[in-house]
Amino acid sequence: MQSASELEPVLAASDLTVSYPAHGASAEHVAISGVSFTVESGEILGVIGEAGSGKSTLASVLSSDFKTPHNRRLAPMITGGEARLFGTPLRGRVPKRRLAELQFRTAYLPQDAAMQLPAEYTVSEILSQPILERDKRFDRTVLGRHVATILDAVHMPFGYLASYPFELSSGQRQRVAIARALVLGPRVLIADEPTTGIDVLAREALHELLRTLRDEKKLSALVISHDFALLRHVTSRVLALHKGGLVGLDDIDTLLGDRTHPYLSALGANEEGGTA
Questions:
Q1: Suppose 171 and one of 46, 59, 197, 253 were both cysteines; which one would form an S-S bond, judging by CB atoms 3.0 to 4.6 Å apart?
Q2: Which positions ≥6 away from 188 have C-beta within 8 Å?
Q3: Residue 104: which of 187, 20, 37, 21 has the closest Cα?
Q4: Is it the case that residue 43 has pLDDT exceeding 90?
Q5: Residue 20 within any structural domain of the chain
Q6: Three-state SS for 237?
């Protein structure tokens, strides 16, 4: 019999409002207003929206990344409604021990993840680091096999294990960033434009990897993307944001055929014309 915590959504937002605090001459900015949705265990929810629609802010807030930013004064804050991650309210300060647990179970892939890879480490060291930070005595043979397996899963040859980020193309760096996000076997993945810069064949491999993790490991995910192949083949539903508000929540093809909102109408017209 499943416990109450196992039955509740992995991610949930109810009438969620997120704001950036006033800073200097800039007034408080509301980035997300009144948004509600859930992500169930084993579900991948897509997110689409124009630049400035609140997509990246949503990802940051739900990942708990905003709790330990470089500059806390400029970090987005939940100012209305609520968001829950594994049943834990994210509004206000999350207890330190619980926050560490949430961050262990949640992988966050920001939009600039490929640029954040540490330049002084090889690919092997980059993928090993999250594991060794938690257990410095982790068996090196097992670690090596695991790192090679996760690199292969993102369609990169083993020969790149000894390479440094500057020796890789932008698409290869993105694949390493994805592998690093998945190396600890997270329960939930929050990814901001994960297929950016990746070639078509490698994108298909990534789609297959996400489907496998969803079906076999019950991975849940919130994926911001304008990769319509990913949205069609990996997500069950897609949330559409426009100027911080929710304008649609359905499967991608239903949204593309929706003419009830100007953004959705334009999105569908662009996709039909092959320019989306």
A1: 197
A2: 10, 11, 39, 85, 86, 105, 106, 107, 219, 220, 221, 222
A3: 187
A4: yes
A5: yes
A6: strand
